[in-house]
Fold this sequence. Notes:
Blueprint: E1 3-5, E2 14-16, E3 28-35, E4 45-46, E5 49-56, E6 59-63, E7 66-70, E8 74-78, E9 84-88, E10 92-99, H1 101-107, E11 124-126, H2 129-143, H3 149-168, H4 175-188, H5 198-205, H6 209-220, H7 224-242, H8 247-253, H9 259-270, H10 274-285
Parallel strand pairs: 2-4
Antiparallel strand pairs: 1-2, 3-10, 5-8, 5-10, 6-7, 6-9, 8-11
Amino acid sequence: MDEMLSDKNSEYPLYSFYEDSTFGIPGFRFVRVDGPYELTKELHFHDFYEVFVVLEGEGHHTLDFVRHDIKNNQLFCIGKGQLHNVASTSNLKGYFMMFDSKFYARLFPDKSFLNSFSMRTTSVFQLNDEIRSQIKTLHLFYEQKRPFKNEIVEAQVKIVLAMIEELSIDESENKGTTDIVQLFFMILDAPSIYSRFSGDFSKKIGVTSNYLNECVKKQTGRSAQSWIKERLLLEAKRLLSHTDMSIHEIAMQLSFSDSASFCRFFKLKDGMSPMKWRTTYRVKKR
């Protein structure tokens, strides 16, 4: 079980990474599930990354206010700070792979960002035979006792994550524009929203606003500003759902000029006012 940390500003628990001394791999845990399993059914956050692999099972997985049906041969990538819970209605067969930021940095020292954990993707992928085979190999290595176990496991995890990453990247993408788009989403996915405006992103990246929009639209079909608005809406919903911040406080935190402009933005994007959304969501949660 992961360690729960209290957060006086949040209605939901934050789970911190728990080191499993049994297997002795710093920053990494791997759990196989085969049958009844005590899932964390309440909505919660992590301060680590998680890959949830479903071989067989039914139920649903709520990830940042979007409910996904759990199906056979499915794979979920859950990033730090994402609000989620898993409710399984039948015996579950699969794996949970968890790792912290330090472990990730050891695997990918020159790559600070993975598309598969980005808001750019749905975070839900179809599990193919190749990845399934590599995950089973990882499980085998993880439970073995051998002189270079840590190195072997880390190498195998890197293979698995790289294969998952391939699912999220279009092979036709141009390398140069891919770097720009990945940097855009890395900034966009940061714990705190960087800016409401695409021009601020382009300045930070070091390109013109028009070129940034051209690259993002070419690879995603959407403008940079539309992605920024989606990220703003998600952050607003997170703050509305798990803090007691007032509408004015949320508007100021998200860099709106006043509460009225924030409320107009929210209603235009979601169809209801922020206060009504907060009330409706909290009733559903009970």
